[in-house]
Amino acid sequence: MKNNQGYITTTLILLMIIPAAILILITLDQNQHHIQQTSTQIENDKLTKTTQTYKDEITQQTQKAVSQVTQNQTKTKKPLKDAKQTIQEQLQKNLNTKTQQYQKTHNIQINCIINQVKQTNDPFTIKIDYTINATNKKNQITQTTSQQVTLENNKYPIYDPQPFLKAKVIKQQNEVRYKTNPNLTSTYTDAYSGYIIHKCPYADYHEHANSNQTFKNCLKNHYYHISHDGLCLFCRMENKTTCPHNGLETFIIPVFKTQKAITSIDHVLFNQTNQYNGQCTQIDDNTYLYLDKGHKNKYGLL
Length: 302
Known about the structure:
Number of strands: 11
Shape: elongated
Strand content: 15-25%
Order of helices and strands: HHEEEHEEEHEHEEHEEH
Mean pLDDT: 86
Oligomer: single chain
Number of helices: 7
Structural class: alpha+beta
Radius of gyration: 33 Å
């Protein structure tokens, strides 16, 4: 009888232990699955964050590439055959270096291919089309997208190669002085302008005429302005005289005073087939420009 009771007791204990063991195994499996899910999520979040950080780098690396190419032109004084292609190649080189740094630092395989560099309607902005691919042990991100990049960056200034390609100039800090050259009349001997592209902060160009101080500040900082007749950055780099895009214009400031002379706008002075005169316009006792009716109206002087 006792043996039967022991057998029954053992059987009951086993019947109780087996479900408990199964429950424990299920719980452990769920915990392991949760741990794996958490680990995967952490890795995926890291991959997403790193990819976004890399994409954010593209803006600065683009500005750096444009700065490198345009600065080199101020030294070589040679036009480019294909400015967009040259910038694309320099940007790709910069990003390849950045890719190696990311792979070492973040343990992620990442690369970016620049598909195209484009002009936009805003001459102070260019567009970059690219494909980015990033992978870790658990996931992969592939994106083909584009972003617009402003040409304004004090760390990587964008140089205007046009003065160096169109005339004989001498650098003086952030200015160039124009020497006698067939492209310029004698009125503009020793004239000066800037060669680093800074967007004029006076969005309404009529504000220039609000006070002499406003106009003087624009001339002192050699700001650039949007112009339908001016050349975009790419056309400047290729030393063209006409441009199908919205372009830029800046003032070339003379030092000789006469009643009238060729208009003091760079794209007018540098285009020998379409030059036209402007009347002497006094800015202050020592500063004046030659402006035609159209540009006087543009800058609020009519």
